[in-house]
Amino acid sequence: MPRTGSLAQLCSRILNEPRFRSWSLLHMSHADKDMRLVVVGATGRMGLALIRAIKEMGGCVLCAAIAREGHPHLGRDAGTLAGGEPVGVPLTSNALHAFAKADGVLDFTAPTATLAFAELAAQAGLVHVIGTTGLTAQDMDKLAAAARHAVLIQSGNMSLCVNLLQDLVRRAAAALAPEFNIEIVEMHHRHKVDAPSGTALMLGEAAAHGGPLRRSRPNSISRSWTCITVAR
Ligand SMILES: NC(=O)c1ccc[n+]([C@@H]2O[C@H](COP(=O)([O-])OP(=O)(O)OC[C@H]3O[C@@H](n4cnc5c(N)ncnc54)[C@H](OP(=O)(O)O)[C@@H]3O)[C@@H](O)[C@H]2O)c1
After folding, report:
1. Is the distance from the beta carbon of residue 110 to the nearest atom of ligand 1 less than 6 Å?
2. Count of H helices and E strands in the chain?
3. What is the rounded average pLDDT of the residues 103-123?
4. Rounded to the nearest whole angstrom, what is the distance from the C-alpha of residue 44 to the centroid of ligand 1?
5. 117 close to ligand 1 (CB < 6 Angstrom)
6. CA 139 to CA 147: how far, in whole Å?
7. Which range is least confidently modeled, 98-102, 132-136, 155-159, 189-193?
8. First to last CA, the chain
9. Is 139 buried (19+), middle (13-18) or exposed (0-12) by CB count in 10 A?
10. What is the pTM for the complete model shown?
11. CA 117 / ligand 1 centre spacing (Å)
12. d(C-alpha 83, C-alpha 210), whole Å
């Protein structure tokens, strides 16, 4: 799990993203008002880490924390659930109501949930920040459609270093003659749902320069390893 420090960095990167910044300046009645953020998937590893990160940083405030209907922790304080002091925000399953009073939604959940939240976020005119991975090409098409009506910020890895690495991989691949093979091999933690990870796919796409990726040996080494081959 990423440490809260790097998550604070992540939040700061999201909040300073030019599209988010320009949207927020347009939509908030006072530019210096705290951004009201909803965390969906609030009981997940990333959701809890985001609740802690929002508490630590200035310029934003947690206005709602969303979990599935029937979740045993509904009604409990989000700050306490995240292992800190109470923040006065009870866990709720009512996303529609929560989105109506928010400026942005932070979404590290699962593809089906993200598509549903994208529709709600577009209806409410929120900025939708998507860290969920495992999105298919069809899912991305649906998100692109939602992005015509709302601001969406999506990345398979929000870390500054990985985004820098993506650029370095793109340059390294361009410098290599076509006869060089490029393979990305990665190891996952035991809770990882999708493989290859969003990070591996981002790096693969950078190496392929937008060309096709051949997942020649998915999970071929062991359950926690994935290898993808870049077609050149
Ligand atoms: N882009 C990045 O930088 C980055 C970094 C880390 C992780 N991720 C990605 O973020 C996602 C979450 O990771 P995680 O480690 O936090 O996973 P996690 O601990 O399993 O948390 C997922 C959360 O989403 C909720 N959820 C899943 N399906 C849902 C649905 N259909 N409706 C409503 N809520 C749903 C889960 O609720 P239940 O427990 O009730 O199912 C849980 O609260 C993954 O796709 C992961 O790869 C991205």
Report:
1. yes
2. 9, 9
3. 96
4. 6
5. no
6. 12
7. 189-193
8. 34
9. middle
10. 0.83
11. 13
12. 42
